[in-house]
Amino acid sequence: MGCILSKRNKNHGLEGDIKVTDLHARIDPQPTTLIETSPTVLKYQTPHFRASAKVRFPPVSSSDTWEVGWVQGCSNMDFFITYGDLGISSWEIPALKSGQQRFVSDSDGKHYPWYGCTTEVGVIVGPTNCYTVCHLRMNDNFHPSITWDIPVRNSHEVKLTKLARDQSFTVWLIASNKTTGQKFVLRTIKWRMQINIAVDGRQPLGRRAHLLDPIIQEQPQILEPNQNELPPPEALRAPNANNAQTLIWRPMTGREVVIVPPVSQ
Questions:
Q1: What is the DSSP string of the chain?
Q2: Least enclosed by CB within 10 Å: which of 49, 89, 161, 221?
């Protein structure tokens, strides 16, 4: 069945307009937390991005089933891990890096195109004779583990010196008719997460890593309704960002090594 995307939600067979109220988006105003408890990896946890909205859905006269919820796509991922003069490892999404795609889906990998399947999406089964109100929420953050030593070895040596991550996302609030394939973009949000960490391997465990600017993240941008953007098809389908990414080790001398390949879907 075809997918028809629209920025507007009027005159599409509904008995009124879909209304979005109480729309909020923010990144918690706190620093990234550095966790130095393991002799093999440095862990960090970023503040959460959070979005919420109330969607008032008009009566549905047909037997159609509608879904309304959050869709997230990643448009940029720079993630470099430096090990002094030994080399750099990089998490990257090849399709984004090459320019083959503008976005990659950031779905949970099971419920495309939705970011999740609980508070992230609401379902309206027609026919209905009254308005349906959906309270929708989503949140996202990073909490990876980074090896102290270069990723092609398994030791307790501390060669890690720097970590830099810069990732950008667009979030769409979408109403989707499962019967016809129509999808209406209700609102659009953009956000970005930047992490810069310096590591001094001469220090004891617990005092090696230091968070650099930005300490507090830039707040998300909620676009006005007349500025809504349409998600490209690749933001709505597999693979998702977790499965599309790969970890590559690039030594200063020698050939690069794929440590974690993309997951086939």
A1: ---EEES--SSSS-SS--EEEEEEEEE-SSPPEEE---SSEEEEEPPPEEEEEEEEEPP--SS-EEEEEEEEEEEEEEEEEEETTTEEEEEE-HHHHTTS-S-EE-S-SSSTT-S-SSTTEEEEES--SS-EEEEEEEEE----EEESS-TT--SS-----EEEEEEEEEEEEEEEETTT-EEEEEEEEEEEEEEEEEE-TTSPTTSSEEE-S-SSPPPPEEPPGGG--PPPGGGSSSSBHHHH-EEEEEESSS--EEEEPPPP-
A2: 221
